[in-house]
Amino acid sequence: MADASEHDVTFESADAGSAKTYPLQCSALRKNGHVVIKGRPCKIIDMSTSKTGKHGHAKVNLVATDIFTGRKYEDLSPSTHNMDVPIITRMEYTLIDIEKNMDDEVKGRGFLSLMTEDGSMKEDVKVPDNEVGDKIIADFELGLELMVTVVSAMGEEHALSHKEAPKGNN
Fold first, then answer.
1. Largest Cα–Cα distance of the chain, in whole Å?
2. How many CA atoms lie within 13 A of 21 on its CB side?
3. Dihedrals φ, ψ of 32, to 5°?
4. I need a labelling partner for 58 at 20 to 30 A (CA). Which of 9, 72, 105, 118 fits?
5. From the CB of residue 102, how many other CB atoms can be counted at a distance below 10 Å?
6. Pick from 83, 71, 77, 86: which is nearest to 34 by CA?
7. R_g of the chain computed on alpha carbons
8. For 96-151, what is each residue's pLDDT tens digit?
9. What is the pLDDT of residues 4-36, one digit of tens each?
């Protein structure tokens, strides 16, 4: 008989086991939809279908851009095969503060301090290294109250846009 210490197991992850993608037949994909190409979540900007050839399947040619980096990807797949579609969530948060990166040796930016609708804090989203990040910092330094849109897909999160928060009626 085994003693209780043999059954003590520590789980490192608190993941609910939800999938980051779901399969969809290539012929069901549409322009402006999303697809995973080379392991990256992408938005389809162009697609075309070739006719069935002598040896089999019609092919779908996809041209898509990475939703986080804007990099362009292309893929060619038989229309009857499944491709992964990323599960994408878009959330708006109130910007509370911007943590500056104080280390001069490290190039890059700090993190955004964001507040969720229920009042809890989220501090794990980096300030974007592009024009969006520059504009968020500039508007925040002007004293504007901002709402930041954070897009999540396949375990990555990025602040992709922002807007001025609506004014309350006083």
1. 72
2. 17
3. 70, 5
4. 72
5. 7
6. 86
7. 22
8. 999 876 654 445 578 999 999 999 999 999 998 889 999 999 999 999 999 999 99
9. 555 555 555 555 546 799 999 998 999 999 999
